[in-house]
Each structure stands twice: as C-alpha cells, then as structure tokens.
Amino acid sequence: METLALDADPGCPFCQNLSDNPQCAFVNRSSTVSSFVNPRQFRPGSMLVIPNRHVATVFDMTPEEWSAVAVHAQQMAAAACAAFGAPGVNIFQNNGRSAGQTVFHVHIHVVPRPEGDEGPTIFGGAYFDKTPIAERFAIAARIREHLSGPIREQEALHRIE
Ligand SMILES: [Zn+2]
What we know:
single chain; alpha+beta; HIT family, subunit A; 2 domains; five-stranded antiparallel sheet; 4 helices; 5 strands; about 30% helix; globular; binds zinc ion
C-alpha cells in the first residue's frame, strides 16, 4: 500500500485513488498524470485524467502541469476511440461549483461517443440564438482587457482590430 503523497488531501476521493484504492481501474500512470476508468460510464470507455498533485482547479496548475494533463487526455481519447470504435469523443473539464465541478481535484473527462449517439452534448448549437456581432466584439474586448503576460504581448504582434 502506497502512502498519500505529501501534497495529497486525505479527504479527496481522487487522492485516495492515487494512494491505495483497489476500486480504481487505472488506465495509465506517469510521475505527474494518471488516468482511470470513470466509475460512471456515461458511454463505454469514459475516463478521468488527473494531475497527481492535488490541485482544485485549472487555475492552481502550472502551465507545465496543464500541458501534461492535456496531452495525456489527448492520448487517452485516441486510444478509447480506437478501443470502442467511436468516431467522436468529448474532452472537457469543469472548474468551480457554478461550472458543475463536484470533485475539487482537477480532472478532464474523456467520453468516447459512438456512431449515431444522440445523447446530450455539452453545448448544442440549437440551445441558443446567435449573439449579434457588435455584442461579440464588445465581449472580445472585455476579455482582452484582462489578459496579461506573454499572451498579452502577443496581441501587439498579431494586431486585432
Ligand atoms: Zn486530490
């Protein structure tokens, strides 16, 4: 039995998975990222990809950790699609209660979608009317005001407007 890592939260179900949970079906593990079969199989092959470090949301991760988790999810998605003959896959994650996050250890959902799957989508185009372009320009400007660091500098090189 492994002991909990120094940064683990003993009350966190995913940290418990990473330490000694025999009920966790791991697909792959590295020094920084792990993936396991989601106990709730929304579709066959549904998985969760998590950083090994206990961090609540994407904003608590370093860019390197986020990159490692995202690349791992990409690889798991490709394998799951091949394994279950799925032509499509959802890769998504939620941050914060208002976004639907229920376990506060960052996790990416990988959900293969079989041919003809007419189950729910995360965002259906038909759910909403289009927002007028003037409003979309205003939204873009509002978000841009809050960019900082290298991504802000990039704006000067690739001028928008
Ligand atoms: Zn945790």
